[in-house]
Amino acid sequence: MAGDSRAHMDHSMEIGVLPREMKKLPRHIREGKIATDRTRLITEPVKKPRQRYVQKDGKCNVHHGNVQETYRYFSDLFTTLVDLQWRLSLLIFTLVYVVTWLFFGFLWWIIAYLRGDLIHGDEEDWTPCVENLNSFVSAFLFSIETETTIGYGYRVITNECPEGIILLLVQAILGSIVNAIMVGCMFVKISQPKKRAETLMFSHKAVVSLRDDKLCLMFRVGDLRNSHIVEASIRAKLIRSQQTKEGEFIPLNQTDINIGFDTGDDRLFLVSPLIISHEINENSPFWEWTQAQLEKEEFEIVVILEGMVEATGMTCQARSSYLDTEVLWGYRFTPVLSLENGFYEVDYNNFHEIYETSTPSCSARELAAGGGMRDRLLLPHLSLPTHTHSHTTKSHHQDLLCTPDPLREEDGEGGGGLREGTNGSAATLGL
Questions:
Q1: Per-residue pLDDT, 46
Q2: Chain CA centroid to CA 375, Å
Q3: Looking at residue 198, what DSSP letter applies?
Q4: Is 397 exposed, middle or buried (0-12, 13-18, 19+ CB in 10 A)?
Q5: Cα gap 316→306, rounded to integer Å
Q6: Once rounded to an integer, what is the mean pLDDT over residues 347-368?
Q7: How far apart, in whole angstroms, are the C-alpha atoms of residue 307 and residue 311?
Q8: Poorest-confidence range of 29-33, 79-83, 355-359, 362-366?
Q9: Cα separation of 197 and 202, whole Å?
Q10: Which of 89, 200, 223, 296 has the fewest beta carbons closer than 10 A?
């Protein structure tokens, strides 16, 4: 019986039937024992999440440590006070006034004590420096009345006290300086345009697809407010570690991504959402990157939108970033602009929506060589793999021909592609 059972097991394995114990294993483990390209793709380790250089909300994820020359912060005290957190700013604002009042109140009390006003203040023939100042509390109240110019009329300085007149002038001048600094800091802090950037939106994903037979990297920006950003401009940086030919390792090296600086397309009229496009040409850092290489590389794209707030005239800056896992190859943005009765309607429900479209998986350099589009025109009869074939085989054919996948073309035309066709003007404007 044991021999028959073993023979039956061997026969089952020969014809491709797994034993009962192996059927209980997960599918990716069972298929991982078969040396095929598809299995290698399935068992390939997933990329670990990378640390962002710039957060999605625009905050730079960089902390400065071991700063020895801290005195430089006090050389620009006004900016230091403005950059403090709100709770620290309010604490310093309160402490400065309280300490100033206490300091000058102590000086008024010292004058009254040295002149003997605290002892002889109630005598009728005695002329004090400050009338009705007979304790430290009353001196403190007189200091507050002097600096804030409240003037209740109960405590007044007399003309028989020259030192009091000098102290009054000094406190009035220093009090005006303190008011100018503190009120100025609070005004600038309140009117900072940082919160204006909260209504500037960036798409969650960036995409790579064809535009006019050229590969382009694209992302979308929008403004939720009716008051516009004046003189808006946008730029992008590629953050990626690099090693030079001499062996020097440069962490987080910054490379400029041209998004229309030479043509003026980086100057935006941000009335409705716009799709910002970077043409991948010979000057682009993505010139030789294929779809497979894009999925393997570790990088981050930082985008910076700058402009003046129309209401205040102050400069505003909004930032965001896209990790390598957030750059999708072969997708486009769903149009959000439609023409209504007498106005254009922006549907922000579709602001982050994308759809799959026909895109060659080769690099822009290979595409520019002419092979991709020429093969697409000369070999229309070539049937690419159907849905029953593996993803690896499909990618292999695309790499050979550098042509878009017809299956992805069907998906694009059935979804967002048809919408783009019906809204031709919006798509042309990148909306």
A1: 57
A2: 41
A3: G
A4: middle
A5: 6
A6: 92
A7: 12
A8: 29-33
A9: 11
A10: 296
Which tokens hold the place of 19?
């034993």
* Residue type at 344 in one-letter notation: Y
Q: Of 91, 188, 18, nearest to 27 (Cα)? A: 18
Of the chain, the end-to-end C-alpha distance in Å amounts to 73
Torsion sign across C-alpha atoms 140, 141, 145, 148 = positive
Taken in order 390, 392, 396, 399, the sign of the CA dihedral is positive
What is the mean predicted confidence (pLDDT) over 229-256?
A: 91
CB 287, CB 295: distance < 8 Å? no
153: tokens are 């009329």
Tell me the backbone φ, ψ of residue 320, rounded to 5 degrees. -155, 175
Q: What is the pLDDT of residue 353?
A: 94
Residue with tokens 């570790």: 298
Q: How many helices (H) and strands (E) does the chain have?
A: 17, 14
Determine the length of the chain: 431
Give φ, ψ of 220 to 5 degrees. -120, 140
Question: Taking a C-beta distance cutoff of 8 angstroms, is the pair 416, 357 a contact?
Answer: yes
Q: Is the dihedral of CA 105, 106, 107, 113 positive or negative?
A: positive
Q: What would the mean pLDDT of 335-358 be, rounded to a whole number?
A: 92
Report the half-sphere exposure of 309 (CA within 13 A, side-chain side).
18
How confident is the model at residue 124, as a pLDDT?
77
Query: What Å distances lie between residue 412 and 39, 359, 367, CA to CA?
Result: 28, 10, 21
The model's confidence at residue 60, banded by pLDDT at 50, 70 and 90, is confident
Does the pTM of the predicted model rise above 0.85?
no
Q: The tokens of 373 are what?
A: 């589009």
Question: pLDDT tens for residues 171-210?
Answer: 999 999 999 989 988 888 887 777 788 889 999 999 999 9
Residue 427 makes CB contacts below 8 A (sequence gap 6+) with: 335, 420, 421
